[in-house]
Every structure is written in structure tokens, then in C-alpha cells.
Amino acid sequence: MARLLVVLGVAIVAFTVFSLIDVLMTDKTRFRALNKPIWFFVVLILPALGGILWFAIGKARRGASGPARQLAPDDDPTFLRGLARDKDQDERIRRLEQELSELDDDSKPE
Predict the structure, then answer these.
(1) How many Å apart are CA 96 and CA 69, to the nearest integer?
(2) Where are the domains of the chain?
(3) Backbone torsions φ then ψ of 30, nearest 5 degrees
(4) Nearest-angstrom CA–CA distance, 41 and 99
(5) Is CB count within 10 Å lower at the N or C end of the chain?
(6) pLDDT, tens digit, for every residue of 35-91?
(7) Cα 28 to the chain's mean position, in Å?
(8) Contacts for 55 with CB less than 8 Å, ≥ 6 apart
(9) Residues 54, 39 contacting (CB under 8 angstroms)
């Protein structure tokens, strides 16, 4: 009986440590219901039950959140805005270089 209690105690401690590390390493966008410090204390104060609560209701599943979805470059509005901005900058640089070359041509005595 004593061996069973020791094994059970070690399992509870290991599960609690695993849960605490998971709480600390989880990105803030995947927290549900409470924030990170509160979940840390819930898991710490309620060793086995806190870990079970954390995995059951505290942590959003990987596919449930929007940021986990990867967009193709032609579907990503940020990427497309960057392309337009780069095109505008290239055009501005081309115009400035042309104006500078015209100024250089005008300033040369012939």
C-alpha cells in the first residue's frame, strides 16, 4: 500500500510540474477563461485538479485559434500591401535617379 502511495505521489508531482511548464510555455493567444498568472496559481495550488482543469478548459486547442492558420502569399493582405509599397518605392527611386541624371546633364558645361 505504501508503494502505491509513493508512486501516486510521484505521478501527481510529475503531472503538476508538466502542467506548470505547459502553462508557462503556452502562447498568450491560446489561453481561455483566465490569464497566465492565474492559471499558474490554479495549477500550483490544486496539484492534480489544477492540471486537469488547465488541459480541459484553460488551453485552446491548436486548430481552434485563427493565428495558427497559414495563408498563401497571394491570399495574405499584409504581403500584398508590402508588394504595393515596394512597387511605389521602386518607382519613386527610379524617378529620383532620373531627376538626378537630368541635373547632372544640365550642370555639365559643353
Answers:
(1) 41
(2) 1-69, 72-110
(3) -100, 5
(4) 65
(5) C
(6) 888 989 999 999 889 999 988 888 877 655 445 567 677 777 888 888 888 888 999
(7) 8
(8) 19, 22
(9) yes
